[in-house]
Every structure is written in structure tokens, then in C-alpha cells.
Amino acid sequence: MAIMSYREALNRAMDEEMARDPAVVLMGEEVAEYDGAYKVSRGLLDKYGAERVLDTPITELGFTGLGVGAAIAGMRPIVEWMTHNFALLALDQVVNEAAKLRHMSGGRLSVPIVFRGPNGPAEYLSSQHSQALASYWVHVPGLKVVSPSNPADAYGLLKSAIRDDNPVVVLESEMLYSDKGEVPDEETLVPIGTAAIPRTGTDITIVAFGRPVKYALEAAATLQLRGISAEVIDLRSLRPLDEPAIMASVAKTGRAVVVDESWPAASVGAYIAHRIASERFDSLDAPVAFVSSEDVPMPYNHTLELAVQPSAAKIVAACLRTLYLEE
Amino acid sequence: MKAADRALYWNLRNEMTRIRHFEETTGQMYGLRKIGGFCHLYNGQEAVAAGFSAALDHERDYVLTGYRDHGHALAAGMNPDEIMAELFGKITGSSRGKGGSMHLFDPKQHFLGGNGIVGAQIPVAVGVAFAQKYQKTGGAVVVFFGDGAIHQGAFHEALNLAKIWNLPAVLVCENNQWGMGTGWKRVSAVDDFSLMASAYGVRGERVDGMDVLAIYDAAQRALADARDGRPVLIEARTYRYKGHSMSDPQKYRTREEVDEYKKQDPIYLLEQVMKEAGLWDEAMAQSQDDEAESMATKAVAFAESSAEPALHTIYEDIYAGEPFFMGRA
User: Fold this and answer.
1) What does the pLDDT average to over B211-220?
2) What average pLDDT does the segment A28-52 reach?
3) Residues of A in contact with B161 (CB under 8 A)
4) What is the pLDDT of residue A1?
5) Catalytic residue of the set A80, A97, A129, A305
6) What is the pLDDT of residues B98-118, one digit of tens each?
7) Which residue in A63, A64, A103 is closest to B98 by CB distance?
8) Is B1's pLDDT higher than 70?
9) How far is CA B197 from the centre of its chain?
10) Which positions 46-105 of A are in contact with B (Cβ < 8 Å)?
11) How confident is the model at residue A23 (pLDDT cuts 50, 70, 90)?
12) What's the domain range around B62?
């Protein structure tokens, strides 16, 4: 096992897939000569040339649509959005084109494309640059959506996304890019649609995805000190969703806390809480708790922005409430 | 008059006639409620689709358009039976009854839609052009859109991308002069859309969209440029005879305006040219008309006799590979 950063793991995935398949190209703002705004594409221009690693103008709608067109014409583009915040300019091409072309053509078209970039809160960026927008994509049939929480999954999920014959949205996290972890030395694909259980437990289930998985694991360690055994489910894939993994865990523990760093309404976390309540009502010993960001745009001030987001402490508190224990 | 020209003229007349008959029949079927939803007819604009189709290399080139797509689909070589069945929402339709009028597709004929979002097809088309260049197919891509679409960011972003990457793309604005109920001059900073090309350093050309021979010539030049990596913008000044869609009462324009344009009808104009050139053959014309009518009649019969899609098909054609559905246990 090699130790590498989340950023390096994503880079390795693209590097291997570009070496494997000449139909794979990477396009986006600053991906080539600048090595990527977050250095995820470092070195790829030198290795694969300007025909396959393309700097675009700052026209998210235009180059996202161009990627969709290339995909229906036999290529496998990776479109990098500098952040998901800017991808809102490209919503039409993802929702109305990439997700619909197979359907509207009665199955005659295929759209093998990856849309990837950082999503979720960063630091000191205020409300236009610190948004968790998973539900914008998870809402839409025709798309797949993955959200890796660690370098190994970033590597394995991105490889699967590039090989998938469907449009796949990859939610990376700017705050995870420098996180390090073990990544298998041999080529490994993480299947889309399968959750991981990074910590097993018997008393309560914490369901999370992306960066908050770190907080969930911290919370579980804190709870262990009080003799509480928490199981952590890292969803990894949001569409499709590994409901069997969630339901099996809740059937075992009888208690669930769902964590999502987005706003509460119409969020992935709210949907999962609803699914658990519907499907495991008989197993539950307490209402499903939900830890989301506060329902406010992100402030610039650091103390305030941290207060807005989920944290290990907030997850611990939610678990204790769900267990009917005092803080 | 060369023999090749003679064949070309008759082919152009035939293509326009086929489209005209198909659309007349489509309008009738809509009136009979065999077809529902938004249905945008191409009557009056036939010269644009026919002129370009004659100039295309259908083995290599691709065509995309917006929602007024029946004429382009026919000109691309799509099976009229499958088109009509799609309009009827039948399982034998080109999209198995899932796309309808605005979403006709036939990758085998290099026709990639059919798109219901104004202007969205332009970046997609430029992406198809990117793939042609990358794969070195030698093919070019022609994308049609209306006078409403040219003001979308999608047009401007796509034309810029086509230019900076030297893509084999021809962008054709079919200016039928009415963006739904809004006169094009009310919402345009320029009164000649070909001028917009200059903002992106590409060649722009305005063509009489009622003159199929002018369209054919312009298409040949544009395709030659595009194949050399020089994208082109063309404005084809045309006119639609019918409403924006079948549900349009057309209160924004006068009967006289429509009648005035019908005097420049593209089929009539070509026939005048053919008569002056001594090419006219009444029997040949009658035979083309009869064939076009029987094509439309046969398409309706096919659509009528086709089955409705089974309910389980709502879960098909969404994903490649194993399908999945949220909200199910």
C-alpha cells in the first residue's frame, strides 16, 4: 500500500485511464498549463499532450456541453469544474442533455462522461464558494453521483466513473485534497453503488458521505470512550444508493443519525432519513436524527462558518439524543 | 445545364416536397389529436434542410437541430414511419415513444437530435465536431438553431470554442423571423446575424433561406471551410408559415405578412428556376408529389397500426447497464 493524497489519488486514476483508453480526454479551466486550479491534473499535459488535456475558456455551459457532444460521438471526456459552485452555470447541459439524451433517443445514444470537481464548504470563501450541492445532481434520474471520502475511494471511484457508460458526477472536496491515506499499489476499481463500513458497531448507525465521514469517525471514537459502539456507513455513492447496507445496519442498531454538509431541505441526508424511517420503522428505537449545515448561506468569518457546518461534536450530540443519554 | 445539375434540382425539389407533405400530414394528425404536446412544423423553411442535406457527406457528417426537427430528420434520411410513430407516441417510434416531436434521433443516419432547450444543441454539436477532429474522421457537423437561440450564451460560448480549437462545425441560424411570438428585430442588437461571426473571428454569411440553390452553394462553401478547421456561421433568412407550435393563435402577425412570404415559397421558387432552365417535367413533378403523399400516408398507417409502449418501458433507456431507481426498497 502506498500512502498518497486524495489529490494524487485522483490524478493517478485519470493518468491510468488515459493511458488505458485513448478516448479519454480531460478538459476544463486551468487543467493543462496551470496543472489544475487544485493541482489535481498535475503532469497530465506533459504526459498526454494538448490534444487530450485541454484548457477551456471560462464558459462552464459551453465546455460542459462540448463534453456531452464528444461523449455521444464516441469519446469519454472528463470535464473538470473548478468547483461545483460554478457548475451551476452548466446545469442545463447536465440535467437536460447528459441525463436525458439516452432516454429521449429511446436508448440510441450513450453519454459516457465524467463531471468532476470540488464540492462543499472550503474556508474563508463566503457563500458563493462554499456550497454543498450534491442534491442538485442526486435529484436527477439518468445521472450517477459519487462522493469519495478518502484517497483510496477517490482513486477507485474515479476509475469506475471514467469506465462507466453513463454520465457520472464526482463530488470531490477541496478540504480533502491534501488528506493522505493508503491506496492499493495494484490497479483497483471501487464499484459505483456500494457503501463502505469504515467502522462497525452495534448501538447506533451514523450515515455520512464525503468530508463529513471524517467527523463521523471522530464522533464514533469519542462515543467509544463512553462505551457506545457506533457503526459508520460511508455511502461513497449517492446515486445509486446502497440502501441494503444502510438498512442492514439500522436493523442491527435500531438507531440512526444521518449527516450531510448541505442545507437541510431537499437534501440527500433528508432523503436518507426518510428512507430509513419508511423502511426500518419497526426496528427503530428512536426517531432518525439529522445533522446538516445550518439553513443559511456560508459566512466568511471562520468561527461563524465552522458553526454553520456539521462537526464531530454535533454528531456526538445527535447520537446521545438518539440514545436518550445526557451530554 | 449539366446532367448533374438536373439531378440535383430534382433531388432538392423532392426533398422539400417530402418535408412539406409530411408536415401537412403531421398538422392534420395533430388536429385529430393523434399527436399531442408541443409540435413545431417546418413549413416554409424546407429549403434550409434540403439545401444543406444535398451538400453533406452523409457518411461522415453529422446534423443536430432544435425542436423544429421533422424536416431535418427526414433530410438526414430518417425513416418517415419511425418519425410519425414517434409523434404518435408508439413503441415503434424512433425513440420508442419517449421523445416525441422535439426529440427525434437516429445515430445511424448521423442525426443527433432534436433538442427541446433553445440553443442547447449548439455546444453539444461543437462537441461532436471536437470528436470528429480528435478521431480524424474528416467529418463535419452542421447545427441548426433559430433566431431566438442566437442570443443564448450557449451559442456564443460554443462558437468561441469552435474557433479556438479549429473545429469542423457549421452553425446555421434559421432566422424565421419569429422567436415564438417575438419579432426577431425587437430582441436583436444587430439586423444581420452573420455579423455575429466577426466577434469570434470566423466567417459569417447571410443567405436567402427561401432559395434552396443559394443555401446549397453556401453549404458547400461552409462545409469546405469547416473541414479545413474553420468554423462558419450562416444566417439563413427564412420564414415559417405555421405558428410557433400547433397551439399558437398567431396574433402577433398578419395574414398578409404570411401570404407575402408564401409568394417566395421555396418549392415554388425552385420550380420557376427549373422552368426557366427548361428542366421542368410535369409528369416527373406529379410523380414526386404522389410519392411524397404516399410516404406520409404510409407513415400514418404505420403509426396507427403500431402498439402503444408497454408500461414497463418507463423503466428502460435511462441507464446503460443495470438500471436502478431511487425510492424503491
Assistant:
1) 98
2) 98
3) 56-57, 59, 62-63, 66
4) 86
5) A129
6) 999 999 999 999 999 999 999
7) A103
8) no
9) 21
10) 51, 54, 56-57, 59, 61-75, 77, 92-93, 96-97, 101-105
11) very high
12) 3-306
In chain A, ranges of CATH 3.40.50.920 domains? 196-322
Number of domains in chain B: 1
The predicted model scores a pTM of: 0.97
Query: Residue B44: exposed, middle, or buried by beta-carbon count in 10 A (0-12, 13-18, 19+)?
Result: buried
At residue B128, the pLDDT reads: 98
Q: Select which of A60, A80, A172, A231 is catalytic.
A: A60
**CB within 8 Å: B329 and A243:** yes
Alpha-helical regions (H) of A117-211: 134-138, 151-163
Interface test with A, best of B78, B91, B101, B105 (most A CBs within 10 A): B105
Residue of B nearest to A141 (CA): B318
Q: Which residue in chain B has the smallest CA separation from A67?
A: B127
Is the model's pLDDT at B127 over the cut of 80?
yes
Asked whether residue B315 is assigned to any structural domain, the reply reads no
Is residue B328 included in any domain, yes or no? no
Let me know if domain A2-183 sits in CATH 3.90.226.10: no
Burial tier of B327 (Cβ tally within 10 Å: 0-12, 13-18, 19+):
exposed
ipTM confidence: 0.97
Q: Which of residues 112-171 of A touch B (CB under 8 A)?
A: 112, 141-142, 144, 164-166
Contact A73 B113 (CB under 8 A): no
Phi, psi of A49, deg, nearest 5 = 85, 170
CATH of the domain at B162: 3.40.50.970
Kindly give the pairing relationship between strand A230-234 and strand A237-239: unpaired
Report CA torsion sign: A90, A101, B49, B256.
negative
Residues with Cβ within 8 Å of A6's Cβ and at least 6 positions away in sequence, in order, are: A148, A150, A151, A154, A172, A173, A176, A177, A178, A179, A180, A181
Q: Enumerate residues 197 to 256 of chain A having a beta carbon within 8 A of any beta carbon in chain B.
A: 239-241, 243
Q: Which residue, among A218, A100, A205, has the nearest Cα to A149 in the 3D structure?
A: A218
How close does chain A come to B188, measured CA to CA in Å? 21
Q: Residue A74 burial by CB count (10 A; 0-12/13-18/19+): exposed, middle or buried?
A: middle
CB B211 within 8 A of CB B269: yes
* Residue A129 is a catalytic residue: yes
DSSP-assigned letter for residue A190: P
Write out pLDDT tens, residues A113-138.
Answer: 999 999 999 999 999 999 999 999 99
CATH 3.40.50.970 location in chain A? 2-183
Of all residues in chain B, the one with the smallest CA distance to A92 is B120
pLDDT recorded at residue A193: 98
**A289-291 and B182-183: which strand pairing?**
unpaired
Contact A92 B327 (CB under 8 A): no
- Decide if A108 and B107 are in contact by the 8 Å CB cutoff: yes
- B37 belongs to a structural domain: yes
Residue B321 in any domain: the answer is no
Q: Which residues in chain B have their CB less than 8 angstroms from residue A25's CB?
A: 134
- Say which CATH topology domain A196-322 has: Rossmann fold (3.40.50)
Asked if B134 and A51 come within 8 Å (Cβ–Cβ), the reply is yes
